[in-house]
Each structure stands twice: as structure tokens, then as C-alpha cells.
Design goal:
six-stranded mixed beta sheet; mainly beta
Length: 147
């Protein structure tokens, strides 16, 4: 099985209790995968091109009526998406990570992709791996924003 697009899980985020953190009014500047971290760019969302402390998690509901696997769903350029501001202490699961990671590893956002990668600098935002599991048959990390 080949993973074409990423999968997200959002059950422990502030937006679950504060709907003001959810944005459904802006569009995707380019094709965006669920589970990736993005920044606002005017009335659109895009993968970050530099380090940022104002990150949003893409989590548009999958269109299950199309009968596609979760890894086939993505947000098309120019279409409205759902993204939520990631607050300190928020936890979410994603298949959008690069490399081998372990529980307690500290990750940062990779520019131009929105994926999580091992920390190799002093970023504005950090995420700590709290759990590893599988989703849709693919490895997933559950992370907590710790900085």
C-alpha cells in the first residue's frame, strides 16, 4: 500500500472546546494534505516558507461518500479548507512526519512541506512525540506542542 496523502487525528486540541480557533473561510494556496502544518498567507493557507510560531493544522473532513481511502484525500488548490490554530499543549496525530522518530523526541516543522522532522535548530514551535501508532495502515505520531 502506497501513501499518497497524509491522515490527521485532532481529538485533543483546543479547537474542540473553542470553535473560534477553527477557520473554514480561507482556501488552499497550493494542494495541501490533512495533518500538515500551514501558515496564513492573506486569504489562503500555504506551507511555511520560514520558521513561524503561528501555525495551523489542516484537518478538512474527508469526503467518505467518494469511497476513497483516507490516503487518497487532499485539499485542492483554490478550494476552501478547514484549519485550526495549534495552541501550546494541543495534541494531534499525523502521518506527516519525515524520518524515524521515537516517543519523547522533539520535532519541528519542515519549511515548504509542513511535515514534522527531527529538531536540528532552535525553532519558534516545537512538538514532542507522546505516542506512536498506526492509522489507515500507516505509521502515525501523536505530538504535543510544547513550545
Amino acid at each position: 500500500m502506497v501513501k499518497k496523502h497524509d491522515i490527521v487525528e485532532t481529538s485533543k486540541m483546543s479547537m474542540e472546546y473553542n470553535g473560534a480557533l477553527i477557520d473554514v473561510e480561507r482556501t488552499a494556496k497550493t494542494e495541501l494534505d490533512n495533518g500538515r502544518l500551514v501558515v496564513r498567507d492573506g486569504n489562503t493557507y500555504a506551507y511555511p516558507t520560514a520558521d513561524s510560531d503561528e501555525l495551523f493544522l489542516v484537518h478538512t473532513p474527508e469526503k467518505l461518500y467518494e469511497n476513497l481511502p483516507l490516503t487518497e484525500f487532499y485539499n485542492k488548490e483554490g478550494k476552501k479548507i478547514r484549519a485550526s490554530r495549534v495552541m501550546l499543549g494541543d495534541q494531534f496525530g499525523t502521518t506527516a512526519f519525515d524520518g524515524e522518530v521515537a516517543v519523547d523526541d522533539v520535532l519541528m516543522v519542515k519549511v515548504n512541506t509542513g511535515e514534522l522532522v527531527a529538531k536540528d535548530a532552535t525553532p519558534l514551535c516545537e512538538f514532542t512525540v507522546v505516542e506512536k501508532k498506526a492509522m489507515g495502515g500507516f505509521p502515525m505520531v501523536v505530538v504535543e506542542r510544547t513550545k
